[in-house]
Amino acid sequence: MTNEQASADLIMRLYELRREPKMREARGWIISFFPESFEDIMKAVVDEKTSAYFRMITTYWDMAAGFVNRGAIDEQMFLDSANEAWVVLSKIHPFLEQYREGSAMPNYLRQLEDLLMRQPDAMATLEIRRETMKRWMAAREQMQDAARLDSQRR
């Protein structure tokens, strides 16, 4: 098996893990989670339900990035199919150092951060993803509000 074939196989295995029902719930939650402060992160971490989602998503992407950083998965091939990793880091990155200090985990999300930050224009990409997610969440809320109003009229 070539390195590319091995990378493709591992990427597909990672994809299958993302399809597991609890992981899908956690992925849905992280998309709608939009921390604006370190306190927002901490609220998610201590809440019984969201804590599991937060930990599941962040450790999944850190683990996957670790495979890339150690050479088990081809970096470019991984990045071609890992847009969600950018979304996750974009939400947490503004508060990452504070979280590391407050949790006494200096290497928290280090693998994911190392992988993504060595990409060209990494900071700009994170900012763009964060702003895009803000717009998407605002649009989603508007659609939900409109649907609620419509159902109340009926």
Outline the fold blueprint.
Blueprint: H1 3-18, H2 21-32, H3 38-46, H4 48-69, H5 75-80, H6 83-92, H7 96-103, H8 110-117, H9 122-153
Helix pairs in contact: 2-4, 3-4, 4-8, 6-9
Short description:
With 154 residues, this protein is mainly α. Helix content is 80%, strand content 0%.
List key phrases describing it.
9 helices, mainly alpha, 154 residues
Quote the beta fraction.
under 5%
Can you give the mean pLDDT? 94
Give me the secondary-structure category.
mainly alpha
- From the alpha-carbon coordinates, what is the Rg to the nearest angstrom? 17 Å
Q: What report would you give on this structure?
A:
The radius of gyration is 17 Å and the shape is globular. The chain has one domain. It has helices spanning 3-18, 21-32, 38-46, 48-69, 75-80, 83-92, 96-103, 110-117, 122-153. The chain contains nine helices and no strands. The chain has 154 residues and is mainly alpha-helical. The longest helix is centred in the C-terminal third of the chain and has 32 residues, at 122-153.
